[in-house]
Design brief:
The complex is a heterotrimer of chains A (261), B (261) and C (259). Chain A is 79% helix and 0% strand. Chain A has 261 residues and is mainly α. The N and C termini of chain A lie far apart (54 Å). In chain B, α3 packs parallel to α6 and α7 crosses α8. Chain B contains ten helices and no strands. By secondary structure, chain B is mainly alpha-helical. Chain C has eleven helices and ten strands. In chain C, a hairpin with a 5-residue loop joins β1 and β2. In chain C, α5 crosses α6. The longest helix of chain C is centred in the C-terminal third of the chain and has 18 residues. Classes of the chains: A mainly alpha (261), B mainly alpha (261), C alpha/beta (259). Chains in contact: A-B, A-C, B-C. At the B-C interface, α7 and α8 of B face α2, β6, α4 and α6 of C. The structure holds adenosine-5'-triphosphate and magnesium ion.
């Protein structure tokens, strides 16, 4: 009889409990999500059929509009990220344990931030679209808002790991509260913060690509319409261009981040 | 020679102001390109107050239905995460330089992961809804594929950091590749991998709340419908339900992550 | 229990550096050979070639007549145990599992991937753990042990293979002198009792004198001394450790490899 290399010869208790919990959760979730291996298997032909439909000649006449929509997506990304960046430095200072003026402010800011980032940008986009109408504006607003929930938190975490010794040097020379933050913490955490910003820019581009689903600007709208109208030749082009631009930014941001940190 | 003989050398060129100027030019151009005018935005603020007041009295009369949809949302996220973990466990070793089968397999695995990561999950959901019909299953597959790209890349990077000496010791005692993976690979990265999987789980619950916008199940569709029918009170209730759930899961997952690291 | 034969063995790395040039020698069954030599002489390379961790450039190495290459590798690696300077244990797994890793080479694939081991494997692991005096640590995590204890687990892992050859690459370099001496005693005892062919790389001449049957001096990829440890005197030692020959033949590429 083979056995496991433990004192009792049974799998470790931790492994057994983890497996049992996982199995229970999956048994609860699978029927609710209609995850049925059989159905998955039976849908294979329709998937292949669909793949055949998608892999067609791209619709080249669509290219100019595609370029325009992709540019719009990029502009939404840049605008939203920049707006969030401007708000994130002060918010980040308030949200870091060591730079916050008071523990109460620290806890309040942290809670506020997690509240702001709780809802996905598409929910906000939906709300803003119904408030200000279709177009890129609600997209920028939604993306900027949710980014304002994430970015200051990352910045604050960078402030918290700043080496305290150089800070002491700044304090020792009589710098006031704001000066210590501007001439001590900020420059020391700068490489980290730039890395975070690039990472968020990367992430926001993916988000901006789907904002159009609810009519908040960018390529997303054309994507939905292409599927609704069975314009699969157009869909292929959209998917490829998203793949292309996301990969491009991904590689560039990997390289940039390696450089600054 | 005394130091006073040497004048201070000219200040080296500092690219920062130029960089900031270019950045602002891009922002300005983006505003123009997206047709966003800030004066309109400011005058629109008054209407915003009126608009928000429409959400004033959340209507929870349909709460039981919302909770059911919420359960489905969580189930979609659970199954999607499970799928993603399965995919990445299969793909990551081949995408890790030190445990891969060959250079060609390595590149192929990396490119597959890149592609999965680059495709936005809502685009995938859109496509799978078109192929498989409405329901949660397309959402599960979309989440699974997209996040497998993230998880797979992360697992591969963790595996690449495993002590090469340990891997060599496994090889030296005649262990095969899968054995090396099971003894030296996965056990060494278990903790990090679990933490990151939880993070992905959290992210997937967020995304699952909006999958309904493209007909891929979950609570998102209900929100979309209430807003389209101008039922702001129901929408407010839905938003509150989503908000509380996401906040709760955020706390739970960050608590668990703190525990295991 | 096994004889190793090296014939015209040559190793040139991808960067063009030749670490071993035309080596012909034999290691008799059950002898304890210590290899001495300056850093970069090629000692580690030699051991890694015997285990097939590096491919040969030319020549042939046989273990009991079986050439070290291709299809034979799994069998050879099962017959040849290896001990490392940095122990190379799997820190997160317990000591018993680490020792059982030595059994993997002849375990069925499926059960071994599920961490399942047969009764005989378990018995062997317990026996070798007792032999290195670590029975009571069997269920500890490997990274909780001291360096000397970890090296004893490393030895137990090699022994669990029931090997015919054990290769040890600077097994005591990370340990204090007393612990190091203790490890050498264990290795010597294994060699004597089980008639296992032992090849040990060392930087400590006194340990070589005390434990070896035979000493090989390696310098710049060539054997410059081969004899009993009694012959080791200061002139021979300075011959073994002489530096100029290494420097003279280093190409810029090789210098880079050093760095
Ligand atoms: N993978 C490799 N690629 C290129 N050159 C290598 C490689 N491994 C070893 N070398 C070179 O081969 C030579 C012999 O290396 P080896 O590790 O065998 O020396 P050593 O005698 O074990 O030294 P030490 O006592 O420092 O462990 C060195 O010059 C080294 O730089
Ligand atoms: Mg060496």
């Amino acid at each position: 009889m083979p056995s496991w290399p433990t004192r009792s010869g049974l799998p470790p208790a931790g492994v057994i409990t983890t497996l049992m919990i996982t199995a229970t959760i999956l048994l609860w979730a699978a029927p609710r999500a209609e995850m049925d291996p059989l159905r998955l298997f039976r849908s294979l032909p329709s998937l292949l059929d669909f793949a055949g439909k998608i892999l067609v000649m791209p619709e080249w006449e669509y290219l100019p509009r595609l370029g325009q929509k992709m540019a719009e997506t990029v502009m939404i990304t840049i605008l939203a990220t920049s707006i969030a960046l401007a708000a994130s430095i002060p918010l980040g200072i308030l949200a870091a344990r060591n730079t916050s003026p008071h523990p109460v402010v620290f806890h309040a800011t942290r809670s506020l931030l997690s509240a702001v980032r709780a809802l996905p940008e598409l929910v906000w986009a939906l709300v803003f679209v119904s408030a200000v109408g279709l177009g890129p504006l609600p997209g920028v607003m939604a993306l900027a808002l949710v980014t304002m929930g994430f970015m200051p938190k990352f910045f604050a975490e960078s402030f918290e790991v700043v080496d305290p010794h150089p800070i002491e040097g700044v304090v020792a020379h009589g710098a006031n509260w704001l000066q210590v933050r501007l001439y001590g913490y900020l420059p020391l955490a700068m490489p980290d913060c730039i890395g975070t910003t690039i990472y968020i820019l990367d992430h926001n581009l993916r988000s901006a690509a789907i904002l159009g689903i609810v009519g908040a600007g960018g390529i997303g709208y054309d994507m939905v319409m292409a599927v609704r109208l069975f314009d699969y030749d157009r869909l292929l082009l959209i998917a490829l261009s998203i793949y292309f631009i996301v990969t491009l930014l991904d590689r560039a941001s990997d390289r940039l981040r390696a450089k600054v940190t | 020679m005394t130091s006073s003989d040497n004048p201070i050398p000219p200040k080296p060129f500092n690219p920062a102001p130029a960089f900031i100027a270019v950045w602002f030019a891009v922002l300005w151009a983006s505003c123009l390109g997206l047709d966003i005018s800030f004066t309109d935005l400011l005058t629109g603020m008054d209407d915003m107050g009126e608009y928000l007041s429409r959400y004033g009295t959340p209507d929870f009369s349909d709460l039981s239905r919302y909770l059911e949809l919420l359960a489905q949302t969580v189930a979609i996220a659970v199954c999607g995460t499970f799928l993603a973990i399965t995919f990445s466990i299969l793909l990551a070793p081949t995408a890790a330089r030190n445990l891969t089968i060959g250079p060609l397999a390595y590149r192929a695995a990396r490119e597959i992961l890149n592609f999965m990561r680059a495709m936005p999950d809502l685009l995938l959901a859109l496509v799978f809804v078109a192929a498989l019909g409405l329901g949660p299953l397309p959402g599960v597959i979309a989440l699974g594929i997209h996040t497998a790209g993230f998880l797979g890349k992360f697992f591969a990077e963790c595996l690449e950091r495993v002590d090469p000496g340990v891997i060599e010791a496994m090889e030296a005692s005649g262990a095969g590749r899968t054995q090396t993976l099971m003894y030296a690979g996965w056990p060494s990265i278990l903790r990090e991998a679990a933490g990151y999987s939880l993070y992905i789980m959290d992210r997937n619950i967020r995304m699952a709340t909006v999958l309904g916008l493209v007909g891929a199940g979950g609570i998102g569709l209900a929100l979309h419908d209430t807003l389209r029918l101008f039922e702001y009170n129901e929408a407010a209730a839905l938003i509150i339900v989503i908000f509380v759930t996401l906040l709760a899961f955020d706390y739970i997952s960050s608590w668990i992550r703190k525990k295991i690291s | 229990m096994a004889k190793i034969n090296m014939c015209g063995v040559r190793k040139t790395f991808g960067n063009g550096h030749t670490a071993l040039k035309e080596m012909d020698t034999e290691f008799q069954t059950g002898t304890f050979t210590v290899i001495l030599g300056p850093s970069g002489a090629g000692k580690s390379t030699l051991l890694r070639l015997v285990n097939g961790l590096e491919p040969l450039t030319s020549g042939e190495i046989t273990v009991d007549g079986i050439p070290v290459r291709g299809k034979n590798l799994k069998k050879i690696r099962g017959d040849v145990g290896m001990i490392f300077q940095q122990f190379n244990l799997i820190g997160r797994l317990n000591v018993m599992t680490n020792v059982l890793v030595g059994r993997l080479w002849n375990r069925p694939w499926l059960t071994s991937v599920l961490y399942l081991f047969g009764r005989e494997d378990r018995a062997i692991a317990e026996k070798v753990l007792m032999r290195v005096g670590l029975a009571e640590k069997a269920w500890e995590r490997a990274d909780r042990l001291s360096g000397g204890q970890q090296q004893r687990v490393g030895i137990a892992r090699a022994l669990a293979q029931e090997p015919r050859v054990i290769l040890a690459d600077e097994p005591v370099a990370s340990l204090d002198p007393v612990t190091g001496d203790n490890i050498m005693q264990i290795l010597r005892e294994i060699c004597d009792r089980d008639k296992i062919t032992m090849i040990v790389n060392l930087h400590q001449v006194d340990l070589a004198k005390r434990y070896a049957d035979r000493v090989i001096g390696l310098n710049a990829g060539e054997i410059v001394f081969d004899g009993t440890p009694k012959l080791l005197d200061s002139s021979i030692l300075s011959h073994i450790y002489r530096r100029n020959s290494v420097v003279k033949e280093t190409t810029p590429d090789a210098l880079l490899a050093y760095a």
